[in-house]
Amino acid sequence: MSPRKQHVILLLAKAAQDEYVLDKMLDDPDAPLEVFGFHAQQTAEKLLKAILSHAGVAYPRTHQLVELLDLATDHDLQLPSESEELRHLTPFAVEFRYDILPGDERPGLDKAAVRCELVRLRTWVESQLRGKVAEMPAQYRTKRRPSKTKRV
Fold first, then answer.
1. Domain 3-140 falls in which CATH fold?
2. pTM (2 decimals)?
3. Which residue, 101, 102, 116, 117, is the most exposed by fewest CB within 10 angstroms?
């Protein structure tokens, strides 16, 4: 297997680990939004980097989702239109992860809607890779939970 394919599989596996955490936190009202947002941002970042890598696009070392989304668009990768909504997760990578925010400045985040967007992005990424990248080992695959909410 080529190093690029190995890298794509690694990114998908690491994204699945973040998705595991998201699914554990989804229905927990006490789960800190900053932590949920961090894992959501990491999931989006790794999925975007996986599809960019698969396409042979060199991407910068960045947590800026807007850069990765723009890079995908610049290289004619037709991401799901809803993926643009994920750009608001960027502050969770560093800013909200390390700063203590007063109660009135806490980030607003619809956990269920974010999770649905990430499932859509993963489904699209996997559809683009189907038959082109070796199957990911079962322990790294995400178990998709049925959505309890309608698309927003």
1. Four Helix Bundle (Hemerythrin (Met), subunit A) (1.20.120)
2. 0.83
3. 102
